[in-house]
């Protein structure tokens, strides 16, 4: 999705997990509808799910294990299904939403036989949980993700979300902070820095007429750029309000620098949370630009219409498919290819999870063998999606599920 970093922290309520499960069935229906067009392109007839999945019969998990697989920055070590903590206790219906979405772009995934597997995933979308679990065990081999030398890594799980913000189509005394579409000629080369965009006439001329919307708070604009995408409730010139999505469309080529770390290093705040950063900004309005300019990177956006179906899912990740709350993760693609089903286990103060997720995105801070960013959904800064994403920083174990 082009996000700048995995996180810059805050607190979190435990009810988020149950919220994801409550919307699971609704999202599953939406995912099935969104996949119908892709299904129509497949030449195979659609058999009954039991004939595809083979019912609930599971092969014995006691045969010889395959060899380890070197994979870029990681080494995949084969394990038994019994070695996956919590396997068999997850509600796979929730994960099927993300899997169906991933199957809209199977050619973007690095998994062998993805087209055939996606045919079966679609056909099993209405199967029982037992049938889905049995199919996964027959068709996939689990591998524990380790460092390239085979040693257990110090895995890290963080979170990200899609902000929901109020905005105006035109600037005013309240809405003063612009969000821009890419300037003409932006081609991956280093462009003006954030400070130069704010101060140099040449940069402002290049961006004239490129403002998509205006926000009231520069910290909100910074959060939106760090997350890489967001929804805005925008007021049009005629007074009408509607919700649209601003999706990542590029950046100015400068490295991301954490404004929270800058404040921490000065002793200006005691914790690197957005609440602390906002409080500092309110107390030091004359120094807000100093804070913002510490991060030279600026992100540019494109506006997308939000249909009723699109609004049920997140923005598109690096795989090119819409993200599913609680089931899509950002990974290092040199360790885990996009589209790969992954078993995730994490114990911590924010979330305790053992569940199936899909590798569908990446981020500049998501680097290494066992490193993931969990997409938590969308909402305003005080709502569960934000609170979970901001607080999430805890140990992680990953197992990739790879076709047999």
UniProtKB/TrEMBL annotation:
<dbReference type="InterPro" id="IPR005300">
    <property type="entry name" value="MltA_B"/>
</dbReference>
<feature type="region of interest" description="Disordered">
    <location>
        <begin position="44"/>
        <end position="64"/>
    </location>
</feature>
<protein>
    <recommendedName>
        <fullName>peptidoglycan lytic exotransglycosylase</fullName>
        <ecNumber>4.2.2.n1</ecNumber>
    </recommendedName>
</protein>
<keyword id="KW-0961">Cell wall biogenesis/degradation</keyword>
<feature type="domain" description="Lytic transglycosylase MltA">
    <location>
        <begin position="164"/>
        <end position="302"/>
    </location>
</feature>
<keyword id="KW-0456">Lyase</keyword>
<dbReference type="InterPro" id="IPR036908">
    <property type="entry name" value="RlpA-like_sf"/>
</dbReference>
<dbReference type="InterPro" id="IPR010611">
    <property type="entry name" value="3D_dom"/>
</dbReference>
<dbReference type="Pfam" id="PF03562">
    <property type="entry name" value="MltA"/>
</dbReference>
<feature type="region of interest" description="Disordered">
    <location>
        <begin position="1"/>
        <end position="20"/>
    </location>
</feature>
<dbReference type="Pfam" id="PF06725">
    <property type="entry name" value="3D"/>
</dbReference>
<dbReference type="InterPro" id="IPR026044">
    <property type="entry name" value="MltA"/>
</dbReference>
């Amino acid at each position: 999705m082009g996000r700048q970093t995995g996180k810059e922290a805050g607190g979190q309520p435990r009810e988020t997990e149950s919220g994801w499960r409550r919307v699971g069935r609704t999202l599953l229906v939406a995912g099935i509808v969104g996949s119908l067009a892709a299904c129509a392109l497949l030449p195979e007839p659609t058999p009954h799910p039991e004939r595809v999945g083979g019912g609930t019969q599971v092969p014995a998990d006691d045969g010889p294990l395959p060899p380890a697989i070197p994979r870029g920055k990681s080494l995949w070590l084969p394990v038994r299904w019994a070695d996956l903590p919590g396997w068999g206790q997850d509600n796979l219906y929730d994960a099927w939403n993300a899997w169906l979405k991933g199957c809209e772009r199977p050619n973007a995934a690095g998994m062998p036989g993805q087209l055939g597997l996606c045919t079966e995933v679609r056909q099993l979308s209405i199967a029982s949980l037992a049938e889905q679990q049995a199919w996964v065990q027959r068709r996939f081999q689990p591998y524990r993700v380790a460092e390239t030398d085979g040693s257990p890594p110090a895995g890290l799980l963080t979170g990200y979300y899609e902000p929901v913000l109020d905005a105006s189509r035109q600037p005013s005394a309240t809405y003063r902070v612009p969000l821009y579409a890419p300037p003409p000629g932006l081609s991956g080369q280093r462009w003006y820095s954030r400070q130069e965009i704010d101060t140099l006439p040449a940069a402002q001329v290049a961006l004239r007429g490129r403002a998509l919307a205006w926000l009231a708070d520069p910290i909100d604009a910074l959060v939106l750029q760090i997350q890489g995408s967001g929804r805005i409730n925008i007021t049009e010139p005629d007074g009408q309000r509607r919700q649209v999505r601003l999706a990542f469309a590029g950046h100015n080529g400068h490295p991301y620098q954490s404004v929270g770390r800058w404040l921490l290093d000065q002793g200006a705040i005691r914790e690197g949370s957005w609440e602390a950063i906002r409080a500092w900004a309110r107390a030091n309005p004359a120094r807000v630009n100093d804070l913002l300019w510490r991060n030279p990177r600026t992100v540019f956006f494109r506006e997308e219409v939000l249909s009723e179906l699109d609004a049920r899912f997140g923005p598109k990740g690096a795989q090119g498919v819409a993200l599913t709350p609680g089931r899509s993760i950002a990974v290092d693609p040199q360790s885990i290819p996009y589209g790969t089903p992954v078993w995730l286990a994490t114990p911590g103060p924010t979330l305790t999870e053992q569940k199936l997720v899909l590798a569908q995105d990446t981020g500049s801070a998501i680097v290494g063998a066992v490193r993931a960013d969990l997409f938590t959904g969308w909402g305003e800064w005080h709502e569960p999606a934000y609170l979970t994403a901001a607080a999430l920083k805890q140990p992680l174990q990953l197992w990739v599920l790879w076709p047999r």
